[in-house]
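User: Before I run my own analysis I want an independent prediction to cross-check against. Here's the chain; please return only the structure tokens and, at the end, one sentence I can use as a sanity check.
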Amino acid sequence: MTEHIDKKLMSQLLQVGASLSSEKDIDQLLENILQSAMNITHADGGSVYRLTEENTLRFEILHTKSKGAHLGGKSAIPANLPPISLFKEDGSPELSRVVCCAVHKDQTINIADAYDSTEFDFSGTRKFDSANQYRSQSFLTIPMKNHESEIIGVMQLINASDPDTGKIIPFSETNQEIVEALASQAAVALTNRLLMNRLEELFESFISLINHAIDDKSPYTSGHCNRVPELTLMLADAVNRCKAGPLAEFNMTEADRKELKIAGLLHDCGKITTPVHVVDKSTKLEKIFDRIALVKTRAAQVLQNFDLEAAKGNLSAEQATERKAQLVEDYAFIERCNVGGEFMKDADIERVKNIAALYQWRDLEGNVVPFLNEEEIKNLTIRAGTLNDEERQIINHHIDLTISMLEQLPWPKHLKNVTEYAGGHHEKMDGKGYPKGLTREQMSVPARCMGIADIFEALTAHDRPYKKGKTLSESLEILGKMKLGAHVDPDLFDVFIWERVYEEYAHKFLDPKQVDDVDVTKIPGYNPPPENYQQVKGLNS
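Assistant: Structure tokens:
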């Protein structure tokens, strides 16, 4: 019989050890600690306290089997009980309370019957017993010490019972030794888990620090860095929910979500080195400042020249007036070109070049020079957007730097895909993206999710200095054309529409003026969901 009990106990202890070493959830870990100790000692009740930085013992779990009481831990009822101070008001150690005494004296306290104890104050226990028709008799209070012999908490068990008769008995020396060993192992496991959590918090804080630096440098980039991870997770969650269609087998765990979130937060970390005047270039002539002001000054000088020429008799008054009117009109055209809001036609480009040669002005050295120099012409004739080819290369370089930065980090196994996810958001499904020219088949689903998120955020962003945010319907039309052009993943685009991810994102991030009515059937590349889609969706909801 004894051999059978020993084997059973040994098996139980091995299971407890495995549970404590593998559990990642702090609340569940505390539950495992307490439940294991209660089961081994056949205790009716138990509590776990955590030592706080304020020198108090905070209730984490309180459990009484016979009363069906379960507070804190994984229960639905929080343990909102006042913390117990380890010190009196005069600063002296609180030794009258058994849990405090166990901490101060760093020893296990085993009490056969609390009602016979004169060393400790059990008045609160007696009040509880009286109000709940209970008798708290045997107590076992164990300080929980980690691998550095630091006390991090206290475990207290109440009312051990005889497994055969059910009678309340004192905690035996054997059980005390077992629970002390268990408490020590549990404290080490808890400390390790807390340390891992803090390291993860530190790492995420470091990521926030990078984004804060980018934010301080460019608030527009920071908004993008914060929104892309959220939209990426919205789409990935939608694919995880969608159990119909080509991506029905995709599955994402909570650990996978965390990995993807970190990748999203870091996807533009390389922009920390990108010059601000390129990142925030709001007009074609902007560098450190918008050089349209220089052009305006020249225009004013040319206007004065017309008046001077008229005064000299070189121009008639009518000719001077006509030329001044033409210059005002031409300058207004240059101003419109500088904004970069619309695609430039060949005729517009030719007009810029003609204007550049049509007027002349005199610089500080007295040289007569064209109205626009070659560098200004090059920028003003940018067909779309505000960046010239060299500046676009500078912007594109951020992804190379992002990958280079991330590849140098010693990623743990559960974050090994961060670089691939973060580095692939500018790739295209046809292999014509950058920096690696990857095709759809060479990219993971999460990386492809980030690609769509990056584009949709950019289309709808209303905090960019160089453009207005497009409406929901305009953005979806462009995204649909990008699906047809093999720029974004077609299957992910379908889920984006089927699961209305765009609506979820719009309600959270877009200006209400941007959120217009969307007829999904008119979106280019729209693909109706499978016939069984709603049925499958219902089963998985």
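Sanity check: Strands lie at 43-51, 56-64, 69-72, 84-85, 109-111, 139-145, 151-161, 168-169, 360-362, 368-370.
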